[in-house]
Amino acid sequence: MNRFLSNATNRIDAKGRVSVPASFRTVLTRLDIQDLYAIQDFVFPAITIGGPDLLDRYEKTVAEADPFSPDANDMSLLIHGGGVFMKLDGEGRLMVGDFVRNYTGITDHVTFVGRSDHFQLWDPATYEEKRREALSRRLANGRSGAGQGETG
User: Fold this and answer.
1) Residue 99 needs a FRET pair 20 to 30 A away by CA distance; which of 37, 79, 112, 129 works?
2) Amino acid 152: pLDDT
């Protein structure tokens, strides 16, 4: 499997480190991702993390825009000025520093959320709230759409 799927909540240790779920570490290994690019999500109070291809995708968006436009400048400010590189330590842990905590509200636990080609770090209660809101919207709109199966 070469996709980040599912979610898991792990405790942050006394030194501010959290273990990345084994299934996520497996994907990182299979995709040979050693340097992680992290950025504050543009929609949710979450940190989005992926490999260098995630940064490349954002930079492509900036490159396609008028370089003097407010949108291109905003994107550059956010992806270059607001992004950081992270690394897993030898035991598969990430440091949960102020960059993560201040934006997400994470305190002592982190929920890792798979998002296909990247994953996110969430405050567990906020993730659950947003997950329920998304499910409610889907249920309110009916179950039409690609990939929806019938049950019963």
Assistant:
1) 129
2) 42
